[in-house]
Specification:
three-stranded antiparallel beta sheet, 28% strand, 3 helices, 8 strands, globular, alpha+beta
């Protein structure tokens, strides 16, 4: 039996591997298993969500990233049966992506909001 995908008015819902909170898929960063610049296995960002294979989702914040690393959530999410990640995965490419990504905040209607768009 196929699993029904939950949806909201904002689209499909996914769970952040860091904080474990549910959010609209478009608010989260998809990550996949790939390789780093040296060809070693690593967790890599997939901001366009088009890379093939199993993916995991993460709020694009330093806090959720650090929680995911501490909990070893990337390895569990990307290799659920423990196969393929014998030495563990480096998450440095995701950390680099988050460090270089600007997330300016703006005040709209008296509330602090984040602009997650790529154009900023």
């Amino acid at each position: 039996m196929a699993r029904l995908e939950e949806t909201t008015q904002n689209g499909p819902v996914r769970t952040c591997v860091g904080c474990r909170k549910r959010a609209a898929k478009r608010e989260l960063l998809r990550v996949t298993a790939g390789s780093d610049r040296n060809g070693q296995p690593a967790v890599v960002p997939d901001p366009t969500a088009t890379a093939p294979g199993r993916g995991a989702h993460l709020h694009p914040t330093r806090e959720c990233y650090e929680l995911a690393v501490r909990r070893k959530a990337f390895t569990r999410a990307l290799f659920p049966k423990g196969k393929g990640a014998e030495g563990g995965l480096s998450s440095a490419p995701v950390e680099d992506y988050l460090d270089t990504r600007q997330t300016p905040t703006t005040v709209a209607d008296g509330q602090l909001t984040r602009n997650w768009s790529k154009s900023s």
